[in-house]
Design goal:
Strand content: 15-25%
CATH class of one domain: Alpha Beta
Bound molecules: flavin-adenine dinucleotide, iron/sulfur cluster
Strand order of the largest sheet: 7-8-9-6-12
Radius of gyration: 23 Å
Shape: globular
Distance between the termini: 54 Å
CATH architecture of one domain: 3-Layer(bba) Sandwich
Number of strands: 14
Length: about 425
Amino acid sequence: MVQGAQQAGLRRRLAARLARNVDLLSRGRAGAVHRGPADLPVGPEAAALSLPRAQAQRPRALSRARGGSSGDRVDRNADCHSFGPARTSHPCVYRGFCVAGCSTNAKQSVLVTWLPRALAAGAEIRDLAMVGRIETRNGRATGVHFRREGEWHFQKARNVVVAGYAIETPRLLLNSANDEFPDGLANSSGMVGRNLMVQLNQAAWGRLEDEVRSYKGPPSLAISEHWNYADSGKDYHGGWCYMSQGPLPISWANTLSRCRGLWGQALLDEMNRANHSVGLKMVGEVLPYPHNRVTLTDETDQYGLPVPRVTYSLGDNEKAMIRHAVDFMDRSLEAVGATERWQEMDDTCHLNGTARMGDDPATSVVDADCRSWDVPNLWLCDGSVFPTVGGVNPSLTIQAIACRTGDRIAELARRGEL
Ligand SMILES: Cc1cc2nc3c(=O)[nH]c(=O)nc-3n(C[C@H](O)[C@H](O)[C@H](O)COP(=O)(O)OP(=O)(O)OC[C@H]3O[C@@H](n4cnc5c(N)ncnc54)[C@H](O)[C@@H]3O)c2cc1C
Ligand code: SF4
């Protein structure tokens, strides 16, 4: 614990140093004051960035760890390491290893947020179930066929809400094609599966004399939104954010062998220096291109269901954004004294799109309530409905859309309009 707090302190100081240098670089590059999140939600109206303020949840969490209370407000950041209202969740103690599961339940995953609330409200969760097809009759969904414990079952439903994410949602809709909807459900526009957007996730890495121990604390600690709001100096559309990195050992070994070709003794030697590595990684906006898409193959999985094929490539806009971002992050690391710098050029992250929201049934799959245009009691409610994707992590927006959709279903049902 003491060592963890010391290492978190070192990372905090490093983050502050990075912020100061990034601020200087931003002024030099854009001729503007570096603006960004003082307290999320973020936006141009936020006060000028001071990274320690952007990380308001950290001293807040530490004060809670010491037994102090910091009020009932929930601080949020883009990587889901939010801290619940006082007395309802454990504080983050910066142990690290969040990606493998948080041993204190400080990380606000659905296991400690939505699922307990759903159960308390009377929901039944059928785990390890695979929905294979949605049934329809007279233009309406009647229920789903699902496989569980080796058997297929049918569940009747007044409303069907699909939330399988950007690959599995279009896969299920396409696999549900029938005589009424021969091209798949909700697909009269032909847009199901199209406009897949996989956010950019390139990185700059280096080595510091200080022992950083990047694995301590949440993996993405310090986030800057600057390039989501500043446009000068860009030769592309859209924005990106970037964040400090804390890869765990196996993923770090994977990165080193994949990106630098290290293997055997060379990989072991580099792994022994892992506590001195430091990195910044982008989450970058990509444009929606209809040809980036999910389709079905003839191959089937263990349930006999056709598996998806993903066709994806980057456009010139994305390549220009990557060049700018990687160069900027590399110069940021150089400014804090990092040596032996290198760049990770081929990573990607969050998937979005493939069942886009819109106001025209001819060019979109769902309306603003996430209700499918074609099947009135079929709702899609996950990252697939994004018509565009910003330059930040998507989960909070996905959850906001889900809450809104739930409210709309309840309201329309109350008014007898479903
Ligand atoms: C390692 C990692 C780190 C990430 N870090 C961040 C982060 O820091 N910040 C952030 O904003 N985002 C992050 N993301 C992305 C984030 O997890 C996703 O954007 C988000 O979970 C998508 O939400 P969703 O509800 O659309 O889909 P999901 O959370 O993927 O939920 C879809 C669910 O549907 C189930 N499912 C799919 N098909 C079927 C079927 N046919 N039958 C039954 N069930 C089905 C799946 O098992 C899954 O449980 C991260 C992702 C990964 C993998
Ligand atoms: S660092 Fe991550 S795993 Fe550790 S307590 Fe905080 S949220 Fe949980």
